[in-house]
Input
Amino acid sequence: MTIVLALVSAIVYGVSDYCGGRAARSAPVLLVTLVSLGVGLGVSSALVGLGSDPFPPGGDVAWGVAAGVMSLTGGASFYFALANGAMTIVAPVTAIVSAVVPVSVGVISGERPSVLAVSGIVVALVAVALVSGIAGRADRATPLAVAVMAVVAGVGFGLLFVFLDRTSDESGWWPIVIGQVTSISIVATIVLVRRRPLDAPSRTYGLAALAGATAVAANVCYVAAAREGLLSIVAVITSMYPATTVGLATRLDGERVSRSQTVGLVGAVVALAMVTAGS
Output
């Protein structure tokens, strides 16, 4: 069940990234972020309301706040890097780092996946890089600052996985709500300080809202998986989310999948089978 939940999380994260990316093409990033976070907060609050989990202790609150900060850091850095550099460099760097960080933390913390599972993790990292387009030719130079921001984005997403994993079972979905509150508070403050009107086509609001709702759904699946299985395995499966984004772009936007991306997609399936068999 752990593998299934992690895989569902990856698929839904990919949907969220696709919707958010599409929305950001025709609207200010701040507006897209604010709308998606607002909807995400509503969805996560509803989940907590349907449950009976009491407000968590200070430790879980701290992990939730930290997760919110890392989620916003990763997202903002990723959008900046994509806007100023080549996607064929930014996307794979971010995806690989977001997988390596939690895997490293898991191993340092004492997790010891089987040899087959470790082999699957290695195959998954290569697959994620290929699916993200690392073998493509960049159409513009990528400045060092942009490459650094891509790494920062990967660290942010990776630490998001780590911090959510550190929350206790008794905290229920509260850490996700706390993370959403933290993120939206920061973004709302920035919007108020800038004092500039934000507007976009009506369709953009729908995409941003869908991005927020699916992001929460992905977080829920990830937390459920991480509380049952090893961080080093759950996180790397979840980091396969670019496969979904690429698939949607191909299906809905008519984008073509390169030969290397096809190899990456096949590799992701193989890696999933290896990790599952070795768990």
